[in-house]
Amino acid sequence: MAPTDETGQAAQQSSASGTTPPARPPWGGAGANGRMPRWLPRAMVLALALVAAFQLGSWVFHQLTGLLVNILIAFFLALAIEPAVSWMASRGMRRGLATFIVFIGVTIVSAGFVTLLGSVLADQIIKLIEGFPAYLDSVIHWINTHFKTDLKRVDIQEGLLRSDWLRNYVQNSATGVLDVSAQVIGGLFQLLTIALFSFYFAADGPRLRRAICSVLPPAHQAEVLRAWEIAVNKTGGYLYSRGLMALISGVAHFVLLQALDVPYAPVLAVWVGLVSQFIPTIGTYLAGALPMLIAFTVDPWYALWVLIFVVIYQQFENYVLQPKLTSKTVDIHPAVAFGSVIAGTALLGAVGALIAIPAVATLQAFLGAYVKRYDVTDDPRVHGHRRRGEGPGLLARAKGLWERREARRHENRGPGQNSS
Q: Torsion-angle region of residue 35: left (phi > 0), alpha (psi -120 to 50) or beta?
């Protein structure tokens, strides 16, 4: 076969220079024989394995999210009761028995509070249902008087009983009973899971710390133990300081409600004390809504007195009581506390709202141990004041502004206008 012109020219050039031109690489960057590189199949298999492992891990994490949240709650509860358990264990009591006694005490107090509060709400609902006809009669009388109508309670009741809305509501309520029962059973199982993990974390706390430290070098062991101690102090301090403030708040509100002769004053005082302390910033106002409602049923002016007392006590607690009780336990800024509660609620719901403050206090204390601090200068600007003699005063600035304005006016008039 005759060579083409290009091959002939290439051959002549190579013979003239005495060297052979480099061969062109095969298409696709493969080897000399056009084969696939040896590392490419392994890389593809490794990439597919990583993707599969990520998908599997993501699926497992989503399936175990509920369990992980329960373990997190149990861990913080164990940290909260750790000081009491350690105090009893240091006096010769076994940690298992000490943890059991603390759990029994917390269970009895919680069950008693829920029972009393439930009885109060049930009694109020029964009274509301019994007084509903009288309320309805008063509303009908007011409508008939002001709008010149002729409504009757019997006609309204018959219309409600025959309405499609009531029939659909009853059917939906009947079908929703099973869902409520399933939620109640699931909630009880969740509480049991949290209680078991909390008991094991508190009873086997030393063993758990040894197991964690056994896989770490000595330097890291000291850091882990230090972080654990800070978490115990902050979480326990938060719980105990809040409990003390709840006791003070409950006593104060009990005195007010008893003086106004509001029914169920002890239970309402306990409600206000607990809700106001474990829901920061707005907890006092949320807790005061229930005693205000019950006081309104006695006398509308009593509800106003309760509202005024709640507002005054909130200021006393924020500026006098809370700084003294929490200065050595969870000394964090109120804005930081409120922001941490919002962030915790966004991440974990009600669980995040409960554990947000002790978690932030623990993180703040742990980071504070590694941040070097210096003495602050006595510059007045640190306290929000200006130094005397720095910059012109108010009168001098006003005078200078007026002089500059007059100078601009003279410049705009021109030389002919100034002479005239």
A: beta
pLDDT at 401 over 60: yes
Give the Å distances, CA to CA, from 290 to 270, 279, 354, 405. Answer: 12, 15, 21, 63
Q: For residue 25, give the DSSP letter.
A: P
Q: Convert 103-142 to b/e letters by CB count within 10 Å (16 or more is b).
A: beebeeeeeeeeebbeebeeebeeeeeeeeeeeeeeebee
Counts of helices then strands in the chain (DSSP H, E): 17, 0
In the three-class reduction of DSSP (H, G, I as helix; E, B as strand; rest coil), residue 9 is classed as helix
Q: DSSP letter string over 271-326?
A: HHHHHHHHSTTTHHHHHHHHHHHHHHHH-HHHHHHHHHHHHHHHHHIIIIIHHHHS
Q: Could you tell me if 276 and 284 are in contact, meaning their C-beta atoms sit under 8 angstroms apart?
A: yes
Instruction: Please give the single-letter amino acid code of residue 250.
Output: G
Query: pLDDT tens digits, residue range 138-160?
Result: 778 888 888 878 877 777 767 76
Q: Please check whether residue 83 is in contact with residue 190, taking contact to mean a CB–CB distance below 8 angstroms.
A: no
* Type of residue found at 339: G
**CB-CB neighbours of 13 under 10 Å:** 11
348 in Cβ contact with 69 (< 8 Å)? yes
Highest mean pLDDT among 101-105, 178-182, 238-242, 273-277: 101-105
